[in-house]
Every structure is written in C-alpha cells, then in structure tokens.
Amino acid sequence: MPHIGIYLQNKFDFLSLIDDIFNNLLLKDLVDLEGKSGELFSKITIDKFIDRELKHDYFVVRSDNNSPLHSMSSGQQRKSLLRYLISQKPDFLVLDDIFASVDKETRAYIIEQLSLIANETLFIQIFYRKADILDFIHTIVVLDEFGKIRSVVRKEDFTQKHQTDNIRQQSFELPYCLHNSEPVANPLISLKNVSLSYGEKKVLNGISWTIRQGEFWQLTGPIGSGKSSLLSMIVGDNPKGYGQDITLFGRKKGSGESIWDIKRHIGYFTPPMLAQFKRNESVEHMIISGMVDSVGLYIKPTDLQIQTARKWLNLLGDSYRDKKFMQLSYGQQRIVMVVRALIKQPPLLILDEPTTGLDDENAALFISMIRAIANTSRVAVIYVSHREEPGLNPQYVYTLIPDDVYGSRGK
Fold it and tell me: Which residues contact 141 (CB under 8 A, 6 or more apart)?
C-alpha cells in the first residue's frame, strides 16, 4: 500500500491541515478518502480522551492493567491510544509526530504494531523531523508556507536531497539577564539515599545525586522509571521529600523554606505546563512572565523587562513577533516556554522533553539556545529526553534503572 508522509514545519496551522486531510481536500489527487473511515493518532486525540475522563468519567482508552489515560506516562498513553485506534479497524490512520516522548522500547512497539496492519490500512504520517520517517512511507508531500502542496516526491528522493541538508545551528549571545547576580549555594542540589513510594508502589530507591553550578546533565531512563517523580523532588513539589536527606540551594528540605524560596532559583519547562496557559497573552508577555515566576503576566512590566523580552523575540524571528501565544503552533509554543524558563538565567534550568513537536529548524534553534546557556559558568541544566539531539552534548548523564519490586535506582 502506498503510504504517505507529510513534512510539516511548526509555522503551519496544524488543525486546518487535519481538517483538510479528513475532508478529502489536501490529498485528493494522491488518494481518495471519500467515504473511508479514519482515525487520528495525535496528542490532540489523547487530550480529548483525557478531558472526557476528567469531566465526564467517560473512559475509552485504558492500559494493559486497566489504568485510565490521564494516569499514564506520555509513552504509555501513546501505546494505549495506538492499540485502541487499531482495534477500530480504520481504513486510514493519520499519524501525527508518532515518536514524540517515547523511549526505544516504545518506538519498537509502535513500529511492530503498524507493520501488522500496513497491508490493509493506509498510513498518513505527519512528521516534523526528517529522521522520523517510517520505513513504510512511499511518497512524501512537501507543503509551502501556506500549508498547500508544493511538491510530491518519492521517499528515497526526499531523504537523499535532505541527507546533507542540516539546519544551521545559530551562534548568538544571550541577552542581558536581570536576575543572574544573586549568590546561591554550591552544590545547588544534593539528594542522598532518597526513596519514593506511593502506597505499595515503589518508585525510587536510594537515589543519590549532586548537581553543581554550571553542570550540564541529561536525565534518562525508560518510560515509567520515575523521571518526573525525581524532578518533583528537586523542584519542591512533592511532599514526600520531607524527612529525607535533600538539600536544595543550600537549604535542608523541611527547614522552613517555602515552595517559592526553591522555585525562584529554577527555570522549568515540562509538557503539561502548556495545558495551563490558555489566556490570550501576547508572546512578549508570556516571555516576561518567566522573570516574575507567574503563570501569565498580571503586573505592568518594566521597560527593562520589555527590552529583554524583545531581544529574545529578535532571536526567535518574525514568526513569533506581535503574536498571541495561542496563535502559535504547538512546536512554537514549546520554544516560547523554553525561553520563558531560561530568560532569567536561573541557577538551575530543568527542561523535560523540550524538543517534542519541534521541526528541524526549531530543534536547531533550541540546541543553539541551550548550548549558549550551558557555556556560561552560572547555569546548571537538567535535560530530560529519550531523543539524542545532534550538537547537544551534556557533560554528565544520570540514568534511572527500573526495578518493579524495589523502585528505580540511579547511576
């Protein structure tokens, strides 16, 4: 079956593209979808099902052990959604950024499941990174800046053309920072023999990890190994940190520090944060909110804050300037949230799956920004991802090794 790939960049209107596919408009000269049943494998579909679970107690997609979708890790959500969609026996499957936030095991699982139905189900793969093209894909559709078809080429011709077409990584100076002079204890983070469990479920076991000023770490581990739980101990969100040997920015956990005493030293991005930002804020105000640690901007910004934000906008380019945050594509929103996290150049920057949903161009922009941050002696970085990004070279790697009985241990 001649499966189709669509190479998408973050500036395109994704929802309009999906409508054009399902309404048999975009691909009508390549394949006739009229009267055919189709399903969408996408973060959008996951979010819709989770919304039904939380608002209406309506559970459609469940894991092997009958867990609801909203309680799963991002990788588990994707496995469960794919299994459900395949069970519906659609004529075609639209696969949006299918390898986002998945580890090697889940990636192999997805490919295996798709291979079982590849002869009877048409795949329409929407991909942002050239390295993600499925082996099943026969034809690549390249869109112009308006989201219309610019060219249709064989996959072999597309990959050959783009083999050496590496997006140039920018080299730029970080804009002046308003908050980078406050002294802070070093090491920044010290965890000694820290464990975590929920009821009978052991999550972490004997974690010891020290993070010093200016270090660049990658946190790795399979899906469900406890990476998010470990981060919650570091940012102070998890009450189970009390009574354990945890020191955050020179203060022993439980010594009277407030959550804001901790968070003012941290710039943080994690994918669920995008769901919190539904106000009609400008991109400029969204970036400024990172300087005042608020969700959105509720005070009048100073002239210096505005100038700093505009310097960052100049680095991002015209597609971000004078826009509302909700007008941006999913990938562009992620870039803005990363800038929001690092604009104050905090002692510790935590980035959880930051390149998910980014196209090759924006991934290169992200890598350039983080390299610039990491090259300073001030900011420590914790980067969490299943994906290896060329040009992003952490100094150290901390790996969680799962253990279903005792909880994950680290090394």
Answer: 4, 5, 6, 7, 26, 27, 30, 149, 151, 152
Q: Domains along the chain?
A: 3-161 (3.40.50.300), 189-410 (3.40.50.300)
Q: By C-alpha distance, which of 345, 202, 208 is closest to 265?
A: 345
Helices (H), 210-302: 227-234, 259-263, 273-276, 283-292
CA 248 to chain CA centroid, nearest Å: 25
Mean pLDDT per 10-residue section of the chain, whose length is 411 residues:
88 85 94 95 91 84 80 84 95 95 89 96 95 94 85 90 57 64 83 91 94 95 89 86 89 81 88 75 90 77 90 86 85 89 90 88 88 83 90 92 90 88
pLDDT at position 171, please? 63
396-401 and 409-410 beta bridge pairing: antiparallel
Point out which residues pair with 139 in neighbouring strands.
Answer: 4, 154
Query: Residue 248: what residue type?
Result: L
**Residue 276 contacts residue 295 (beta carbons within 8 Å):** yes
Instruction: Provide the token pair at 356.
Output: 């998910």
Q: Which two tokens stand for residue 190?
A: 């010290």
- d(CA 77, CA 84) in angstroms, rounded, equals 11
